[in-house]
Amino acid sequence: MNPTQGQVIAMLDPTTVLRCASEIRIQVGADGHLSIYTPEESCQAGPHGLAVLHAFVRPTRLSDGLAELQARIRGMHEWIELTNTLTELYRAGVLLDETGKRPVVQPAPMGFDTAGIHVAMLNDRVRTTRFLAGIREVVRPGDVVVDIGTGTGVLAIAAAQAGARHVYAVEETGIGQVAQTLFEANGVADRITLLTGRSTAIELPERADVLVSEIIGNEPLGEQVLEVFVDARTRLLKPDARMVPSALRICGLPVEIPEEKLARHVFRAEALENWRSWYGIDLDPLAMAIPGAPSYFLLRPQKARHWRVLAEPALLLELDLRTFTDQEIEVTRTVTATASGSLNGVLIYFELALGPTTTLSTNPLQVDPTNCWYSLVWFVADAPSVAPGDPITAVYRYRVPGPPPVEWRVGSLAPA
Amino acid sequence: MNPTQGQVIAMLDPTTVLRCASEIRIQVGADGHLSIYTPEESCQAGPHGLAVLHAFVRPTRLSDGLAELQARIRGMHEWIELTNTLTELYRAGVLLDETGKRPVVQPAPMGFDTAGIHVAMLNDRVRTTRFLAGIREVVRPGDVVVDIGTGTGVLAIAAAQAGARHVYAVEETGIGQVAQTLFEANGVADRITLLTGRSTAIELPERADVLVSEIIGNEPLGEQVLEVFVDARTRLLKPDARMVPSALRICGLPVEIPEEKLARHVFRAEALENWRSWYGIDLDPLAMAIPGAPSYFLLRPQKARHWRVLAEPALLLELDLRTFTDQEIEVTRTVTATASGSLNGVLIYFELALGPTTTLSTNPLQVDPTNCWYSLVWFVADAPSVAPGDPITAVYRYRVPGPPPVEWRVGSLAPA
Asked: What's the complex ipTM?
């Protein structure tokens, strides 16, 4: 029997089985882009080429490979680059099918499964509203504006609505095609030019009065905001250009991670005792054999609203984005404990200055419940006890070779 | 000033920067294992070799690369293989450091950050208790038992405690070293032999009376339970050997995904209206430009306990693990709608027979709140309306080339 009536509802892309060619030669460029050669052909691939090959290193259904790749993607831009790379690898015969059927993969402008990312960002009403408010405060009629990483183009549209003479919307990925339809739907297409490429690789026909850019990651510096802003100041902006955001602060909040949360990530004596009683098996050696906690976990900061805070936040980094020059950062700060507890974690959050009267913060004590960023919560090894008045010292580093990026100690500094 | 007093608490492994060599040649073996050559040297790597290279395709701190790799790992075994591969690639010069410092990476028996995985499985008291109960029902004094994928060895210990004459505990990864310490701590090391390797690649000195194996994935067949059991019956077990589990059922529950959950994954009219009102920007073209919903999302089934169920579950697959032979599966089932609603999703769960009186189910209506498995919830395109009495037809396939693995339609079957 086969289904022969009614509407067949396919819930999955076809299950074409793909696998990696058995002989590949790869040249890795300085920027992570790849040249990939089979004995017969060659192609170019973005930095995700190896991830795509990995997903199909054994014969794998396209749908399964995509599901695996989804799991490691940080955001929409990565996903679009990755799916386009997959298509190109298939075209060039680096990925082969076994059934003789062509897989249903088109270089879609939006990639796959990106709706959820937009939904989360747009539902973060405080994030988007504050960026729009900053743009209205900073952009003046007649300005030339550059929006780096425009994505769906919302900030570029807001800049045009605020009176910009012209907006250059820079977007590396195919989502720019969608932004273009939004420019048209909102009646500002004549004043916005979409530029496809990385901001560090494109040229503007004129220097801009204002830089707008939302490229703050869960690790605030992780989307290369420092590198992008320095390059923009050098090549794309007028002297003394205005910026949204104009300043970035990164703070570390010394906390006591609640026992319930901690118990999900590390072995606790109570759990070992439970398991012995439930299962009749001594599992204590497991706790000793397994290395300690992971370095950090990700948490929406609003979920830490009621955690015990052990000290005022340490201001780890304060950058005026209009003037900073150092891209290697090393800062040491000391704060004073205000409560007693076990210093087992440090939650990292950020604050942005978006306009003269507009700021945005992911401080767990202030953040909106709809906030879409995650905070990194670092485990502090050995979880030292602190009491009010104890000094807590933090060292924060970015791009300093050698030592770890974050260190904490209970104690004061010796004079230099 | 440098910190010079007190205990410095390093919260991260050193930030050695690694990057992929610029010229690599790769041979991909039939099982996904790799031979990787630089102009100077060569090495062998597991199926995760390409994922590791990908993480370091640009110069990347070891800690950052590991964090990225963590995000794509399905479980402990993968993580151990992956970190060992990283070590080997570094040793062979396929990954190069730029600072002259050696990264702190040892082939750790447990890999990195695995505690959370064990914690979740061991805290799933129903899962572990039922497997132990099944073992006590099935294993008889004097039996020879093989435990495939022993992991930390808990099931092997239970088999020994149940009176097995000898247990062969098969484990592919270095976690077997930890299992060995647990065998000793529980006084059963003289009756358990650890065998390192894949079950399909190892030999037993004698055939076993009982097979024990917990290799049921979030996608129930995803850890290759069919392939492993067929191979074990052929090579490792006596005729008519007993099994824990002895049967596997996979069911699809037709549901109406609640609006609140749906709105996180797809564009809904209400959200588009909100955004227009909040931001003064028409975002409707975004919804049209972006392809539909993702194929599925993962959800702990206990979170679907109160979802509207539109029909009895469809029994998509029912396998007697002691006798099945087909590894290509195609099943068609029809169920009758029992409620009105929008058929926008199908939740997949499984049931195991673990002993004559012991079962385990991830049915959302029965599952324990501590359950550690995720269910796949498939979106049904176009979300057809159903009313009581409507037939709903499901087709489920495994390893059938061509058509999708799951299809649903509202309607009955024509006679064959």
From this structure: 0.72
